[in-house]
Amino acid sequence: MGSLPFFWQPLPLLLLLSLSLAWAQMRPATASLRPPGDPVCPESCTCQPSDQANCSALVLLAVPTGLSWRLHSLLLDRNRVRSLPPGAFQGASALLRLDLQENGLRAVHARAFWGLGTLQQLDLGSNQLEALAPGTFAPLRALRNLSLANNRLVRLEPATLGTLPLLRTLSLEDNSLDTLGPGLLATLPALRSLHLRGNPGACGCAQRSLCTWLSQHPRGPEVEGLVCEAQRSLPISPLSAFNPCAQSPTLRDLAVIYVIGPFSFLASLATCLALGSVVTACRAHRRRRAAASRLPWRPPDPKPGTPPAQAGVGNPAAAQA
Ligand SMILES: *[C@@H]1O[C@H](CO)[C@@H](O)[C@H](O)[C@H]1NC(C)=O
Ligand SMILES: *[C@@H]1O[C@H](CO)[C@@H](O)[C@H](O)[C@H]1NC(C)=O
Q1: Would you say the pTM of this structure is higher than 0.70?
Q2: Smaller CB count within 10 Å for the chain: N or C?
Q3: Which residues form the signal peptide (predicted)?
């Protein structure tokens, strides 16, 4: 009897059995919150198909809580979510697409997107964002499309985006951006399409560094709405030096430039020649006058008592007389 191992003794066996029974009873209770095959659809949203929650235009004031890890798509566009708190999408760890357009969004916490490591498409367009904290998009390592179009962004630092290794499309059109450093592109190695139309700075000197970067990386992204786009596709023309914002030179512009250019060159050449010959003529004239004034040497008034013979030296007129 004493040789029986501990587990085969009746009391521990009973204990184990009751424990496993209790476990089995608990399992369905927890699972009933998120039944398999039927992801929790956020309240008042429709989920058709089941992994896509459509919560568009429901006048929601906040992101629904208790999001399911089975959700692949969450449409929250046209609501009234004014701010995103830290961990706003907690639970939705398999989300691929998130649409937050037209919410009047003003504030996004630096940790709002934490846990969205699989997200591929994020649309924050048509909101009222003025600034974004550094590191806001850093957790989104799988992001391919990011839209911040039609906001009020004044600056966008490389630190705000962080390194997004897979980002292909970045839409920044219709903001108030006046600077966009080349550092931004350096952290987006997969970028193929950058939309900048409708930003006041897109035509200014502030973008020169970006232009330079693009010209040095001819296989870099297609940039829409930036000066360089037009310049790069144009044959090198003198116009780009005059008006860096011209999309394409008109016939009149070209005529003016190609007529005034050679004309002003010829005019300046003629002016130089004329000035040069005037100066040369003046110098020659002065030299001739100096020589002439040296030649007819006049003797000083003869003092009383000096011999008159000296007066004739070097003075042919006097010698003849
Ligand atoms: C989401 O629902 C709205 C109406 O509630 C509908 O207009 C819209 O087309 C739906 N979007 C998708 C992607 O199903
Ligand atoms: C995402 O970007 C790709 C090109 O990179 C584009 O074809 C697609 O339409 C974009 N999707 C959205 C929702 O912007």
Answers
A1: no
A2: N
A3: 1-24
